[in-house]
Amino acid sequence: MSKWSQRAVEYPWLIRNLSIIDKGSLVLDVGCAESLLSHELIAKKLKVVGIDIRNYPFKDKRMVFLRRNIQDTKLQDNLFDAIIIVSTIEHIGLEAYGQSIKDTDGDIKALEELKRILKPQGIIIITTPYVRDNPLKIDRFERYYRQRLKELINGMKVVKEDYFYPYKAKKRLLWIKLQREEVDKLSFHKGPGLACIILKNA
Prior knowledge:
Layout: H1 3-17, E1 26-30, H2 37-43, E2 47-52, E3 64-67, E4 80-86, H3 106-117, E5 118-130, H4 146-152, E6 157-169, E7 172-178, H5 180-183, E8 193-200
Parallel strand pairs: 1-2, 1-4, 2-3, 4-5
Antiparallel strand pairs: 5-8, 6-7, 6-8
């Protein structure tokens, strides 16, 4: 399974759920360097700021791009109406993607910073690989298990959570939408599932 098969689930899910964000809202696209998601957000009449520690080659003149560390944005409190993090949070703190120092709590620190720059009652939308509590090959930087995900979103209200399980049928890869309780009963020997979560700031 490639990351692009995962994107085929994440992006349509995100677009379907963008109605939770009012048109004209100021939105932060976290980890935008290899994505055209910011352009989709602009097309939905949202004001977009993209942020990444790497350069962003697809910059649209209607967006602002910040080349900064998401753990220390140096932005003011309560700035954004919404923040979108598509398959990025699990990489924060990894010695890759332009990061040179490993920090096992990098994701927690990043989300705390994001909550700081998010308005009260603002929305965070996260998608990330998910493997329930499978003790095999757990690596926080590649996929989340239930306890770590719980720690990550602690203190925020869960507005919506959808989980997808990869099922290989002959030569096709199908993503089946399930409740978390259903996903948590399954094994993940063929690869991680996907958690898609909408959160509201306190």
